[in-house]
Structure formats: C-alpha cells, structure tokens
Amino acid sequence: MSFYYTRIVHFQDTDAAGVVYFANVLAFCHEAYEASLVKFGINLKVFFSSQEVAIPIIHADVYFRCPMFCGDELIIELMPKSWGDDEFEIFYQVFLNEVEEKWVARANTKHVCIHPRSRSRQNLSDEMRRWLLSFESS
Amino acid sequence: MSFYYTRIVHFQDTDAAGVVYFANVLAFCHEAYEASLVKFGINLKVFFSSQEVAIPIIHADVYFRCPMFCGDELIIELMPKSWGDDEFEIFYQVFLNEVEEKWVARANTKHVCIHPRSRSRQNLSDEMRRWLLSFESS
Amino acid sequence: MSFYYTRIVHFQDTDAAGVVYFANVLAFCHEAYEASLVKFGINLKVFFSSQEVAIPIIHADVYFRCPMFCGDELIIELMPKSWGDDEFEIFYQVFLNEVEEKWVARANTKHVCIHPRSRSRQNLSDEMRRWLLSFESS
Amino acid sequence: MSFYYTRIVHFQDTDAAGVVYFANVLAFCHEAYEASLVKFGINLKVFFSSQEVAIPIIHADVYFRCPMFCGDELIIELMPKSWGDDEFEIFYQVFLNEVEEKWVARANTKHVCIHPRSRSRQNLSDEMRRWLLSFESS
After folding, report:
1. Is residue A11 a part of any domain in this protein?
2. What CATH number does the domain containing C41 carry?
3. Of the listed D15, D61, D85, D126, which one is catalytic?
C-alpha cells in the first residue's frame, strides 16, 4: 500500500536552466514523508525537534528521467520498508499528473533511529513501527 | 476581494532556531501569488520564463509577529493593488489556521512590468490587468 | 564602519527567469550578518540554537535595482545600528564586484532580543553590545 | 587530481533538528562543481542558461556519516570521471576543516549532455572535455 502526495512546482524550486533544481526533488520527497506522518497523526513539530529521539537520513538516492517545470502538478508515491528495529527505507516515485503512467523521478532515503546527542542507535518508537506496518497491509 | 492560499510548513522551511527561516515567509507569499495566477488560468511555465515580458519584484517587505513551526497550517491572504499601467503591489497576511483572528506575518511585494532584455518598462498585458481587476469587484 | 562580505551567486539561487530569486537576496544579507558575527569571535552553532536567548528578525525590507545572475560576484556591505537595549537594525548594500559604484540591492533587517520560550523581550548580551559598538568607531 | 572547495554552513542550510537539511549537502556539492568550472574559466551564466547545450544531472547519491552544524567549515573534494563522449560523473567527499581525516558526507552526481529542447544526447563540448582531462593529470 502506498501513500500519495500532490505538489505543485513553485517558481522558487526552479533554476536558471528553467527546470526544477535537482536537489529540490529530494525535498519534495521529504514533504511526502512529512504529509504521510501527519496523516498518521504524528505532530511534526514534536517529531523533528525531539531531544530524545531523531531519525536522520543516512543515505539518499535520486534518478531523473524528465525535467519538471514551474506549475507542474506532481504526484509523489511513497512506499516505506522496514529494516530491523532501528532502520527503514522509503521509496518514492514522482509522476506528472498529466502523464501518470511514466515516472519522471525516482528516489529513496534510508533513515536510522538514534539518540540526538550521543548519535548512538536506538529502536524505533511504537508509533513509528505502527506507521511502517500501516503500509504492509494489502 | 481576497485570494486565500493554504500552506503547511515543511521541515526544510525551518532553521536551527526551530522556526521558519525569515526569508522563507516571502517565498510562501510568492507561492500564494502563483496559486492565484493559476486559478485565473495563467500558465506559470510560460509566465515566468517569457522572453517578451517579465514582472520582477522591485521591493519586498515583511513583518513577523509570531514564530511558525514545522507542521503549522498557514492561510495566506493575498490582495493586489494596481499602480498605473506598468506596476502593481500585493499585500499578504499570513494566519495560523488554528488562531485565525490574528496575523502572524504581513508582507508586501511591488512588481514592475519590463522587457526582460532591455529592462525598460512596458505596460502590463491585458491578462494581468484582468487579474488585477478581478480583485476589485466587491 | 562597515563589514564587507563577498558571495558568488550559485545556480541554486537562481530561478526560471534566469536571475536570483528575490527572497534569496535577504538570505545573502543574513549570511553577511553571520560572517560578521564569526569574525567577531561568536560561535554560530551556539548563537542560533541557544535555549536562553534568541534575536529573531521582526521586520525585513529589500529593494532591487538590477538583476543578479549565476556566477556574479557580490559584495555585501553591512552596517548595524543599535536601538535601545533590546533591539538593533542592520542595513545592507549589495554591489556587483565588477561595477562597484552602484548598488544592485539594498536591504535592512530589524532584530529583537527575546527569551525563546516566553517570547518576552530581554536585553542584548554584552557580547552583542560589543559587536554593535565595534561598528561605531570611525 | 582533485579540486577543493571551502564552504561555511549558513543558518539557512539548517533545519529544526539543528543540523544541515539532508538535501542541502547535494547543493553544497553542486557549488563545488560550479567553483571548479569558474576556476577553469567557464562563464556560469552562459553555461547554465545555454539554449544549445545542457548537462543535467540524471542521478545523484549522498551518504551522511556525521551531522553538520551552522558555522561549520566544510572542505569539499571534487573528482570528476569521464564516461564516453556525452556523460561524466563527479565524486565528492565532504570534510570538516577541524577533523580533516574523516569524511562527514560522500556524494556523486551523474551528468548527461543533451540538447535542451529535444532532450536528445549530444557530445560534450571541447571545453568540458578539457575540464574533465584537467583532473586526469597527476
């Protein structure tokens, strides 16, 4: 089961080549992740500034097939996958709303759960496990 | 008559002080401007990369009353005002959806219509005049 | 006495109109502020994430005279001005290195010293007073 | 032979978790690429907005080992590698100036030379071939 997030390309997202600046596509994907957490009932302000637990990204990857332009309506599909007790990965496919069959970009991000100060690993919270599980149901 | 744009604060919009980075609020306002143009039927890709006409911002101003946090739902009110044939100004009020009575930020941007190469002034297109007029009806 | 900061325009700073996105110029000015604090011996990591004191911007203003392009070398002049015990303002002039006589953008930011949690005002630290004073010597 | 680019972490680069927002590290790497082109004598304004040739990124990858904070001085090592006549890849290592031995992030970007309108492939210019060759000399 996937989560879908819709995002219009803003003028600020573009660069002087007239298309979306490459690194911004990863930010679009992160917005989809945030929207998915919100839909699950997670408070983003608390989630991202906790002194007890952080889930930083340790790896990100992005492929581009087509340029994206200002005003384009993107649909981002998000599919998380659990890796043990303290890690997960998220796969993203970015589609243009007008041409839904073909993806224009694909990305993935790998997240590890740590203590923000010591940076040592810790297990994901029950809430995050439930969020991950919610994608496994068919 | 005003146009209203809703915008969730993303993680990327924030800074290490835990709140929205000040200059990003002007970008939120510009998004409201873009959304208003789209609703009026204007193609943003063509509008912002035209070789014939550009409407750059020559002045921007922003006041902050309250901090904005990741996950906050903002409502941005946009009210343009015409200044002669080649200029207009846009006033913005940013509200938190939860506390609608009080604005958290106010901004305005002044736009001048020019030839992109010569940078000399030219009159606004009929389309932009109609966009401006659409806000004057009661 | 002024502080000068040099900044190359990056590709990411530009938009599909081929020039620097307007709100990014305020971010360039904030970089000049940061560079000036660093030169004065202030640790930015501590300064911007303190739980005891914050100095948020409550107003920002920016004028644009000329477009800035990718690769342009900007020189930003910074001149702070004290306003009582808990406020200050910074004036910025942005010059193109090649044509130094004329500014291409002018900005100012107004900063107020507060407690980050209560958001009530407090006096600026001795360190920040000394930073402000350092600009008054001729 | 490598190219080295020094970059201070700005306040705007950070997020509410107190560290550099992940996708911004790819933008730092792109800045290193731009600085390397400038040093080679390439005009960035012409390079990035040409109507005849574009070299978009088709893949990007980034690993994070340590968080980066506001004020950190980063040193980015850039090593391009040629792939035939119309492609190249760039490898980046990001170091903290204070602890130079260990990288804090590693990235790579893959670039393909195309016609901006048709998006069909074309050979890299002689200038870009010379830029690539300049890294192969020992």
Report:
1. yes
2. 3.10.129.10
3. D15
Q: Is residue B83 part of a domain?
A: yes
Tell me the per-residue pLDDT of A25-70, one tens digit each, with 9 for 90 and over: 999 999 999 999 999 999 999 999 898 999 999 999 999 999 999 9
Domain range for A75: 3-133
Closest residue of A to B10, CA-based?
A: A31
Q: Is residue A124 part of a domain?
A: yes
- Consecutive sets of 10 residues in chain B, 138 residues long: mean pLDDT of each? 95 96 98 97 93 96 96 97 94 89 94 93 96 85
Contacts of residue A74, Cβ cutoff 8 Å, sequence gap at least 6: A6, A7, A8, A9, A28, A68, A94, A95, A96, A97, A104
The reply to whether C120 falls in a domain is yes
In C2-99, which ranges are continuous DSSP H helix? 22-39, 44-48
pLDDT above 60: residue A138: no
R_g of chain D computed on alpha carbons:
16
ipTM of this complex: 0.95
Domains contained in chain C, number: 1
> Is-catalytic flag, C15?
yes
- Chain B CB contacts of A49 under 8 Å are 18, 70
